Amino acid sequence: MSATPSIPVKARDLTRAFENGDLLLHYQPQVDVSRRWPKIVGYEALSRWPQPDGSFVPPDRFIPVAEDCGLALILDTWVIDTVCKELARVKATGASRRLGMAANVSPQQFGQRHFAQSVDDILTRTGVDPTCLTLEITERAVLDENETTLKNIYALREIGVSLALDDFGTGYSSLFHLRTLPIQEVKLDRSFVSGLPHRHRDAAIMSAPINLASELSLRVVAEGVELAQQAEWLQMNGCSLIQGFLYGRPAARI
Ligand code: C2E
Ligand code: MG
Ligand code: MG
Given 3-state DSSP classes, what are the helix, strand and coil percentages for the chain, each rounded to the nearest 5? Predict the structure, then answer.
């Protein structure tokens, strides 16, 4: 699927597409390369808006519109519900009980009073083990650490759901969030991975959060890994969870 040309996304069209059930999720594998044979340990769900001509509007263009028009709150719930159903389906076919699934969540969701409860309801309804679900929050968005947000985050932790800081290193608040929130995972941004293994600055910048994550006992996932040398460098430097085109593009089926 190719991306549509950059025509502005209209909230009305997006809402209609969502209501018609036109939005889809694609799943990209996350691979543990520390073993003799790389092993898929989880997937990240990524939203897609297909168009009649076979192209699609990329999420970078429609998610901000969904956030502006209030649709993001319903969209997130749909994403979490869909990934849990998919996880339940895959596990019923005999997949590893430890297989994880990550969903991207808009920051404003955490400010909704019943968010943690609604995630708990979905997990109960689908029978998914909460420890298999990770909610990713992008580092670029501002997470307002107000009382409701913190209550939701701690309630999700209590249930067993993991929280990941996505695009780590691209925002200004990485270290602040790591200090204040119960985060289990950081995802190192693709923009740093692309310079590996040869660009010394990128290598130095990657080493710092990998070491920090290890000190704090966090999982660390490198995004956007396209080359075998990048995966090798990451593994040798302490990051063995890899996501990127090298091991699989996002696809409609797991
Ligand atoms: P993200 O969560 O950081 O997702 C990773 C993005 O990098 C995805 O782009 C994925 O297709 C792309 N990617 C993965 N591996 C490679 C690689 O090796 N090379 C290259 N060039 N790209 C790679 P995508 O699907 O276009 O999503 C962009 C962003 O949109 C996501 O970044 C996420 O922040 C947001 N997003 C996607 N789906 C959702 C959603 O359902 N809800 C919310 N709130 N945000 C979403
Ligand atoms: Mg993500
Ligand atoms: Mg990312």
Answer: 45, 20, 35
